[in-house]
Write a structure and sequence with these properties.
Blueprint: H1 30-33, H2 70-73, H3 80-85, E1 96-102, E2 142-143, H4 159-171, H5 182-227, H6 237-240, H7 248-263, H8 267-284, H9 318-328, E3 344-350, H10 359-371, E4 376-379, H11 389-401, E5 405-409, E6 427-428, E7 433-434, E8 438-444, E9 466-469, E10 473-477, E11 481-485, H12 488-505, H13 511-520, E12 523-524, E13 529-530, E14 542-543, E15 552-553, H14 556-572
Parallel strand pairs: 1-3, 1-4, 2-3, 4-5, 5-8, 8-9
Antiparallel strand pairs: 6-7, 10-11, 12-15, 13-14
Length: 574
């Protein structure tokens, strides 16, 4: 995903954010907080007592909250646990393959054992394409951003940069234009302006957060020394309130650190921000950087397949492993977490680098998933430009023709997608026909009430179908680790898990029927007044129904009840 518009308020501890290609969060209000000169020692936080959380849950998400029930547990979860305890008890199910098009998956993770797809027609490591699908030794999936020699694309540029480079080479310094080029030249001017602005912002933010990090580290050291605390001890608001000093240096440090503590920030959080903006400067907006030679394909040939390699983890599989765990982590062992679906196999398809995914790879990844038996494809990625949209659209239509459901994360820029572009999307070709097999998912928080929509989530009464849990989602990360992350990237696999659950128990349903059931059975929060994502004034609310087609949050329990009725009806009328 390309660099987002960093213009929203501090909301969540930066350590919990995925400061990363999928979920870059918004830091600009750091500038408005008055870190250097504010006279106030505290933020003006409004008291909060939502109907869907107890006192402590406003500060910490309940364990496994995304699987909990709105009525029983007072959080807007998807009611998975209730469904297993009641509707699904002693029922038989069929295995469903869910493709995860992402950054890679650690298929050796302890909580994903037995949950990874195996291509039984391929003989491992014999250097041959045994099943004739065009991919050599694709035993567990495929890596479209790897090379024949086992190397990987890790960082890549943003699509904005790639467009700028392409058009700059064609039009820079041109004084005379042919009539046919005038429209494209105007587009180049627009791209050039945006690129230069984004690149400058990345440089400024990188330098700014280095300064903030230095000040934060200094303030922590100074105040811990004043309080006689060890380096390992954490500064808390309670500790800071004990400080009484007329020394200007101490007072300035206290003023800064109080804001950091109340907002939930530490030195490590600034490191995340620095890494994000540094990556943008060094790679994302670097016009000289092009790692595609690693892949070794003919990049302009969209019909080409077979490029890449069979290493589905890659160098940075945190995001993809987290997504896979949300969908499929083993519910029956005593390890880690409980995924949404039980009888599923994850098909990892590595396609998304630290930068923007490329349309050729996305199109091929969708086709690979469909051709190899996936019934659901999770796509927790997106970007603002799509020069190869035609080919992605054709792949989406191909998936539709084979009865495959595509679940896509709405994005994390706090934007109204009825007014902003986010690719890929459900609009096909020049006619902009809706893909009926497409489910667009926004993210909600465990808090409920007016803070139910995640502050970062994109939304849209026409272009976002439904919301699902996407804040403080605890799931699998590489090397048998677990971590809580935020993003619509987390909400999409919750939806994919519910879809897989439905198909697993009711395999006679089609992809479009599953989508329809998920939307019709959603927990209806449409009348709830909420703060719209990105709002600068949290007193200005809108009804939740304004943020999506359904005005609801996915509910597995209700969806399964509806699916059973639909399934029986289809059998009866066969």
């Amino acid at each position: 995903m390309d660099n987002c518009d960093f213009s929203k308020a501090i909301l969540l501890p930066l350590s919990n954010l995925v400061v990363h290609k999928f979920n870059p969060m918004n830091f600009k209000h750091f500038l408005a907080i008055g870190l250097w000169a504010s006279a106030s020692l505290a933020f003006a936080h409004e008291p909060y007592s939502p109907p869907y959380s107890d006192e402590d849950s406003t500060k910490k998400a309940p364990e496994n909250w995304f699987n909990l029930d709105p009525e029983e547990n007072k959080v807007p979860g998807v009611s998975t646990e209730k469904a297993y305890r009641t509707l699904l008890k002693n029922k038989k199910s069929k295995t469903v393959i869910v493709a995860v098009i992402d950054s890679g998956v650690d298929i050796e993770h302890e909580d994903l054992q037995g949950k990874i797809w195996v291509n039984k027609t391929e003989i491992p490591d014999n250097g041959k394409d045994d099943d004739g699908n065009g991919y050599i030794d694709d035993v567990n999936g495929w890596n479209f951003i790897g090379g024949k020699e086992g190397k990987h694309v890790n960082e890549d540029t943003y699509e904005l940069t790639r467009l700028y480079v392409q058009l700059h080479q064609k039009y820079d310094g041109k004084s005379k234009l042919e009539v046919k080029d005038k429209e494209e030249f105007e587009y180049y001017q627009e791209i050039k302006t945006k690129f230069e602005k984004k690149y400058k912002e990345a440089q400024e933010n990188y330098n700014y957060y280095k300064i903030l990090r230095k000040k934060c580290a200094y303030s922590e050291r100074l105040l811990k020394a004043y309080l006689d605390l060890s380096e390992e001890e954490r500064l808390t608001e309670e500790y800071l309130m004990k400080i009484r000093s007329s020394d200007e240096t101490i007072a300035e440090a206290l003023n800064f650190e109080m804001k950091m503590v109340q907002a939930g920030y530490s030195v490590a959080d600034f490191d995340n921000a620095i890494d994000y903006f540094e990556s943008g400067v060094k790679y994302g907006y670097n016009t000289e950087f092009n790692p595609r030679d690693i892949v070794g394909d003919n990049y302009k040939n969209y019909s080409e397949k077979g490029y890449g390699n069979n290493s589905v983890e890659g160098p940075d599989a945190e995001h993809g492993t987290h997504v896979a765990g949300i969908i499929a982590a083993n519910r029956e062992n005593d390890l880690g977490i409980k995924g949404v679906a039980t009888n599923v196999k994850i098909m990892p398809i590595r396609t998304v680098p630290n930068g923007d995914e490329r349309d050729k790879d996305v199109a091929n990844a969708i086709r690979y998933a469909v051709d190899n038996g996936a019934k659901i494809i999770n796509m927790s990625f997106g970007k603002s430009y799509s020069p190869g949209k035609k080919y992605v659209d054709e792949a989406v239509q191909y998936a539709a023709s084979k009865g495959v459901l595509l679940v896509h994360a709405a994005g994390n820029e706090s934007k109204n997608l009825d007014e902003s572009d986010n690719f890929p999307n459900k609009y096909i070709g020049q006619t902009q026909k809706n893909a009926e097999n497409w489910l667009e998912v926004g993210a909600c928080s465990w808090k409920g009430g007016k803070e139910m929509p995640a502050e970062f989530s994109n939304y849209g009464q026409n272009n976002v179908d439904i919301f699902a849990p996407g804040v403080a989602i605890h799931a699998t990360t590489p090397d048998n680790n677990y971590k809580s992350l935020n993003g619509t990237s987390m909400a999409a696999p919750v939806a994919s898990g519910v879809a897989a659950l439905i198909l697993s128990y009711y395999p006679n349903l089609s992809a479009t029927q599953v989508k329809e059931i998920i939307m019709k059975s959603a927990t209806n929060f449409g009348k709830q007044d909420v703060v719209p994502p990105g709002a600068e004034d949290d007193k200005k609310t809108v009804s939740f129904k304004k943020l999506s087609v359904t005005g609801g949050v996915i509910n597995a329990y209700k969806a399964l009840k509806m699916a059973e009725k639909k399934s029986k009806s289809l059998k009866k009328n066969r």
